[in-house]
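Training component of the fellowship. As part of building independent skills, the fellow (R.M.) carried out the full modelling exercise for a liganded target. The chosen ligand was fructose -6-phosphate. The inputs are recorded below so that the supervisory panel can assess the work.
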Amino acid sequence: MCGIVAYIGKKEAYPILIKGLKRLEYRGYDSAGICLLNSGLNVYKCKGKVADLEAFASSKDISGTVGIGHTRWATHGEPNDVNAHPHYSGNEKLALIHNGIIENYDPLKKELVKRGHIFKSDTDTEVLVHLIEDVQANENLSLAEAVRIALTQVVGAYAIAVMDKSDPNVIIGAKKGSPMVVGIGKNEFFLASDATPIIEYTNEVVYLEDEQIVELRVGQDPIVRSIENEVMTPYIHELEMKLEALEKGGYEHFMLKEIFEQPRSISDSMRGRYHVQSGTVTLGGISDYEQKMANAKRIIIVACGTSWHAGLVGEYLIEDLARIPVEVEYASEFRYRNPIINEDDVVIAISQSGETADTLAALELAKSKGATIIGVCNVVGSSISRITDAGSYTHAGPEIGVASTKAFTSQVTVLLLMALRLAHKKGSIAESRFQRILASLEKIPAQVEEVLQSAELVKYIAGQYKDSRNFLYLGRGYNFPVALEGALKLKEISYIHAEGYPAAEMKHGPIALIDAEMPVVVIAPSKGSYEKVLSNIQEVKARKGKIIAVVTKGDTSAAELADHVIEIPETEEELVPILASVPLQLLSYYIAVMRGCNVDQPRNLAKSVTVE
Ligand code: F6R
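Fellow's submitted model of the complex:
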């Protein structure tokens, strides 16, 4: 979490930093700040969003062609003006921004206090800038060298950018465990947590590796050194991101735009990867490893949040089609529970951002035990995509709304293609079923478009239940993860308590909650355990619960029982999660908007969870 951006060049830095921070606000938005080099090193920072920072800075000197900016998601110290970044060193000659956590900040701080340092904030970050100051002063070093030596004493994760009043033509960046991209323009450089603040100025970037330090000086090539002081040759990547993808394009919120983008994002996830006529699926990114995957005694999927829900759908798909045992683990649990991992295991990490700290750490653990590690990531060049042996990008395009929508449907699409590919390789699927699924997959983008046409109906239903205090979501089989995902979407953006349950589990406890005040969303497509889900609906009705049913077009039985019906087109059972999740996204969206919630930036959340 936290977004960082820095600029050094010939242009005015302030507008670049503010625009960049707005792009990065999805990473945290409890306070924001900048430092500009003009009459001196001037830090302006305050609690609140980037817009609050702009208002605060409007009366200040915002000139200067060198600057750093930060948008925060608090870890150490409450969100307030003092704890906002940048932080000065004690002598106010250095200013630093940081994304990550300095785990050993306490002993470092105690040592620095003994040496006379006085701290103003409760943050671990301030300790780091004092440490750099201390090293620089005691050993009379350049900023780059002082940063490098200070970082050898640090345990934890960081992406930092540092400015020095005594050396105004330089910005130093460094990273470990938190992402950092260097943008290389003409006579100018950028640093940022991801490429979104950089894209309109240059498409040439370097993804800094862990424990690398970059020195950016106008008129010179960037110098990248390892923490052991070895000079490295940076590899320059070309960005493929489009600027339009980062803007709302006429929609009120990014979340709504991203929900409506799904026909295209799903097409992009499958483009060039399946061929109905020849009846084949190809996933170029994993082709060297698919034999290993097909032979695996088991596959372990690690992920968090929405990506974990996609992983559950993946489990059902891979087990059902490719007949390989799959376990789905919360990355945060997996990494700390001493799991059994063997060299013939395949571990698949699913992550939109590709930066989630727990997922990354789970993968590192699996890799250290010799497992093959595969990524299903959305962000090209992200940390997870770089440490995995192979992988398939979801190609959903940038997802900016904090609540994940199009990333989920793209993850499920890619997992379906993976399951089909492995099934074909293993010969575990009948050709007729394989062809049927492929033919249905081809229709999915148009069918999602059709589902989106029910937006007004969903909005009406949202209006009926916007004041409810609890919601229950029920589904079976492939649609149990959809129920979990529907409940997560609602709680994270509307702050209504919601639970997802396997429909048949309801009678083992949650049924006690049902009364006339309880809306129950049931995913009841005509495939799979339809009859059984109908019985579950009856059980809810008998207790006066209100039913919102997602049913297959033309359904009459579920429709007769339900208070509200949302239809989705007929498709194969394996594909229902893609279609059924769309109305649930819309339902959460409209309820949250009607409750006056900030849909794109829900409280306490951040999009890229780079702390554990
Ligand atoms: C929910 C949501 C989160 C993320 C989770 C994992 O809408 O967005 O639950 O799914 O933080 O993030 P990634 O996929 O980036 O690893």
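The panel noted the following from the submitted structure. The longest strand covers residues 94-102. The chain has a mean pLDDT of 93.
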